[in-house]
Amino acid sequence: MSIMRPEILFPLFAPSTSLKGVGPRVAPLLDKLAGPLVRDVLFLRPHTLIRREQATVASAREGEVQIFEVEIDSYQKPRSPQQPWRIKTYDGTGVLTLVFFGAFGNQLPQRHPEGSRRFVSGKVELYGLDWQITHPDYMVAPEKAAEIPAFEAVYPATAGLPARSVRRFALEALQRAPALPEWQDPAWLAQEAFPSWQDAIAKIHSPQSEADLTPQSAALRRLAYDELLAHQLAMALRKADRRAEPARKIPASPLAAALAADLPFSLTGAQGRALEDIRQDLASGERMSRLLQGDVGSGKTVVAMLAMADVAAAGGQTALMAPTEILARQHFETLSGPLAAQGIHAVLLTGRDKGMMRAEKLRDLASGRISVAVGTHALFQDEVTFQALQLAVVDEQHRFGVAERQRLQTKGQGVHLLAMSATPIPRTLELTLYGDLDVSRIDEKPPGRTPVATRAAPMTRVGEVEARLRDAVASGAQAFWICPLVSESELIDLKAAEVRARELRERIGPSVGLVHGKMSGPEKDAVMADFADGRISVLVATTVVEVGVNVPNATIMVIEQAERFGLAQLHQLRGRVGRGHRESACVLLYDPPLSENAQKRLDILRKTDDGFVLAETDLELRGGGDSLGLKQSGFPDYVFADPFVHRDLIAAAGDDARLILNRDPNFSTDRGKALMILQELFDWRSGTHLRDAG
Questions:
Q1: For 170-213, what is each residue's pLDDT tens digit?
Q2: 297 in the Ramachandran plot: left (φ > 0), alpha (ψ -120 to 50) or beta?
Q3: Does 219 map to a domain?
Q4: What range does the domain containing 351 cover?
Q5: Mutual orientation of helices 218-244 and 197-205 as an angle, nearest 10°?
């Protein structure tokens, strides 16, 4: 549904250079801080509040920001450029010294002559026995005393752009904000005691107390709900658009039934339910957009494989796209054998395919001889064509851009989408990420998975861990040893990992391998292949990504400085072991002392291996921050909404969006027209910060 920007919003979508004082020097600084539009400056929130009280020198309080009415008594010039100007002032109760560093000090006597009265304000400090203010925030004549605000909002600043200038721009943006029609339901406004949009936006720029700055203030909750509703509407509209797009009906097939019967295990109840959801979508005649969520090792790939068999039986093709070559290869190894046994041909396509081999694979795909293509980004390159692409499966979908996913889907007509994710997202936050998708969860472990015994130990006991590891390796075990990304510099991380690998080689022997982000794809693959084949017994790795490989013989996972990892990352790393029938262990090494939250996180990890339980518990425990690693999961960049603090508003916004589209799909009522303005105000359609599934 195409919406023209309403004229009422033109002042807010003007460039920020239209604000007074935003010239060529300031514009890039303001753009970095807020964004390029007047709207972005309007949406910039102050982070603290300065409260100014009228005081006398006799009642001055150290470290507080106060206002004094003083008389300029005398000037003390600096003896050298490094020294400050000092102005002695008197207010009838005591002496207050004003201190100014910098060359402009020689202008002070003209602007504030001796004997003149001035109102000054700033942070008061004791210097020996004297009260002083260094660089007062305000120094004005009595007739301008009203310019000193009793409450002053403090905005973010950046080098070359002080907070007070940002405040000036934000207040001018506020003056430009038009009176917008009310888009919220009156009963909901009354129930939540929300102010109008204008009052809410004005309130965040003129807070009267610290409470006005908190996410739970009525003004901020109102703006957060507006933003969440705009986002949910955008996702609901996209979902409706996709549903309206016809797709070929694909029935459940005897071929898939034969494939399932040949598997050496039965599907879990959760796998069966997920497959049923997918089959209903495929048979509906509408384009499927479904997310399959499940822990590492929960059996998502097997469910996808059975759907691929249904597609192949109907004469269609499937493309499975994974973010790394290692993962693509792993999927191919899981799928190709069982599919081939049923006469379904699969091919692996990566960036390393060259020459005749690549040309032959492309010919087979274009002719339809190949039913399943597994690969990386190589799958959506222009020269890759399908005869009848009907299903796109995207693994770890948040690691692909919107455009990348869409390019894959444009290689066929009405292509069904199945996205897969092993990142556990709390149910309360699911809508913010997946509001435009139908979600199926695999929340049962396949039988035969060995529980992983999880222990935590301080880094001081690393010698003991190495000794036990040496004994385990001697008896034929394999292990991962994960070094954290501890700094901004990959070189420092790499150095730490190289040192650890060298130390382990000294303790354990030559069968210690190292894999890191600086290696080329072929180099990584060679090390991983050596690990999978047992030639490497301990694999030291710097990143989570490189260990996305299934090594059933690996039974030990050591995670160094575990407190630095998000809970989801730790959980996924632990999921790399316990895949065979041998007992497995995960050792969480930490740097003491642990913060209370880090201690609780490691405790939770020891108690449960259910990713969804972990996600929910972590959310309750934390109530903010990003230890789940959600920023890496394609989480929306909200301006006002905090998905943790405002999670009670998320479900309400999702329900409201569905209700609106059912009642007024064309936005033709008065509220509908106002909601079109809301959508444009937040502009979720632009895709700049919207991570949809394509």
A1: 999 999 999 999 999 999 999 999 999 999 999 999 999 989 99
A2: left
A3: no
A4: 254-442
A5: 130
CA distances from 388 to 136, 316, 413, 491, 681 (A): 72, 5, 8, 46, 40
Residue 547 identity (one-letter amino acid)? V
Other beta carbons less than 10 A from residue 362's beta carbon:
19
Please say which residue of 390, 413, 442 terminates a domain.
442
Backbone angles phi, psi at 278, to 5 degrees: -65, -45
CA–CA distance, 518 with 663 (Å, rounded to integer): 54
Q: What is the pTM of this model?
A: 0.77
- For residue 84, what is the DSSP state? P
What does the angle CA 176 – CA 181 – CA 182 come to, to the nearest 5 degrees? 120
In 120-253, which residue ranges form alpha helices assigned H by DSSP?
163-176, 186-192, 197-205, 218-244
Cα 255 to Cα 372: distance, rounded to the nearest angstrom: 14
Alpha carbons 501 and 349: distance in angstroms, whole number: 32
pLDDT tens digit sequence for 8-63: 999 999 999 999 999 999 999 999 999 999 999 999 999 999 999 999 999 999 99
CB 120: neighbour CB atoms within 10 A?
A: 23
What's the number of domains the chain is made of?
Answer: 4
DSSP string, 392-452: EEEETGGGS-HHHHHHHHTTSSS-EEEEEE-S---HHHHHHHHTTSEEEEE-SPPTTPPPE
Q: 268-282, 310-324, 448-462: lowest mean pLDDT where?
A: 448-462
For residue 379, which of 369, 368, 393 has the smallest C-alpha distance? 393
Complete edge-to-edge strand list for the sheet that includes strand 389-395 = 346-349, 372-375, 317-321, 389-395, 416-421, 289-294, 438-442
Q: In terms of domains, do 399 and 371 share one?
A: yes
Q: Are residues 365 and 422 in the same domain?
A: yes
Is the domain of 550 the same as that of 598? Answer: yes
Q: Are 425 and 466 members of one domain?
A: no
Alpha helices (H) in 8-132, listed in sequence order: 26-33, 38-42, 108-111
Cβ atoms < 10 Å from Cβ of 163:
18
> Cβ distance 524 to 515 under 8 Å?
yes
CATH number at 81 reads 2.40.50.140
SS3 687: coil
The answer to whether residue 650 is domain-embedded is no
551 vs 315: CA distance, rounded Å? 34
Long-range contacts at 407-414 (CB < 8 A, ≥ 24 apart) = 407/380, 408/319, 408/321, 408/379, 408/380, 408/694, 409/694, 411/319, 411/380, 411/384, 411/385, 411/386, 412/317, 412/386, 412/388, 413/247, 413/248, 414/245, 414/246, 414/247, 414/248, 414/287, 414/390
Does 584 lie in the same domain as 476?
yes
| Bridge partners, 292 (sequence order) | 420, 440
Distance CA 40, CA 57 (A): 42
Average pLDDT, the chain: 89
